[in-house]
Amino acid sequence: MSNPFRIERTDFISVPVTDLEASTAFYRDVLGLEQTGTGQWPEFSLGNVSLYLIDPTNVGQAFTAPHSAHIALRVPDVAAGRAELEARGVVFMGGVMDTGVCHMAFFHDLDGNALMLHRRYAPPEAPAR
Predict the structure, then answer these.
(1) Residue 47 host element (H or E)
(2) Which DSSP state fits 64?
(3) What does the pLDDT look like over 55-75, one tens digit per residue?
């Protein structure tokens, strides 16, 4: 007998923000994400999952703190992506990190939510150095 409860995938990631209009412009215009939803629930397509912005006060909650776990945004070239975003005013923490399996560059959105540019270059079975 099969288990009727099974998690199939992640459908969306919600990101708490304090200003929906400014944050929508950041994710759409600065990061270049494809906006697929508008209004009180701005949504962006990330290919395999959606990201939506939420003002917690619209659902009776306080904005307590930004997300501190990074959302990894896959790009073709982390260094080139970083340079392009820096030209658009994004400030990065540290340099481009090379883990031995991927390149990463860390930054925050307007509310301090943790984001990173990411590109894996080694096969999944490759050990990190």
Answers:
(1) none
(2) -
(3) 999 989 988 888 889 999 999
Q: How confident is the model at residue 85 (pLDDT cuts 50, 70, 90)?
A: very high
Half-sphere exposure at residue 22, Cβ-oriented, CA atoms within 13 angstroms: 8
Give the pairing of strands 43-45 and 50-54. Answer: antiparallel
pLDDT level of residue 128 (50, 70, 90 thresholds): low
Q: Within 13 Å and on the Cβ side, how many CA atoms surround 40?
A: 4
Residues 46 and 91 in one domain: no
- Give me the domain span that covers residue 23: 9-61
In a domain, 120, yes or no: yes
> Cβ distance 85 to 107 under 8 Å?
yes
Given a cut of 60, whether residue 31 has pLDDT beyond it is yes
Helix (H, G, I), strand (E, B) or coil at 83: helix
CA distance 41 to 29: 17
Total number of domains constituting the chain: 2
| CATH code at position 54 | 3.10.180.10
